[in-house]
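ok trying again, last paste got cut off:
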Amino acid sequence: MSKVVVTQYGTPKQILKFPDHYVALAVTVDDTGIVAGPDGRKIVPAGTIIGGGFLADETKKAVAANDATAEGVLFNDTDVTYGPAPGAAIVHGFIDIDKIPTAPAAAAVTALNMIKFIK
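nice, full thing came through this time. structure:
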């Protein structure tokens, strides 16, 4: 039996303060611990601070890490309803702090030394 997946497309949420100045790396976003919303979808929102060792080992999955282990900021909403999914981690750039779901912890700001959070 096959499944049908319906995807709606639109303008993605923009978390960058200056969209022409950033560096992002491809990552696999982990689905562990992500709770489904009312629509049954498991979405990791853009602006989530992530870590998990993906900078040192590209086979490791990105997980939420708003602490000293932070390695980047998730660029776009990532749907992990059907398991780990591809995404992009911003590792250098300027992030609009008012557009991310959770303010970065002081330890995460220190760890993300090539990212500036701006109001």
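cool. The chain has a mean pLDDT of 93. The CA atoms of residues 4 and 82 lie 12 Å apart.
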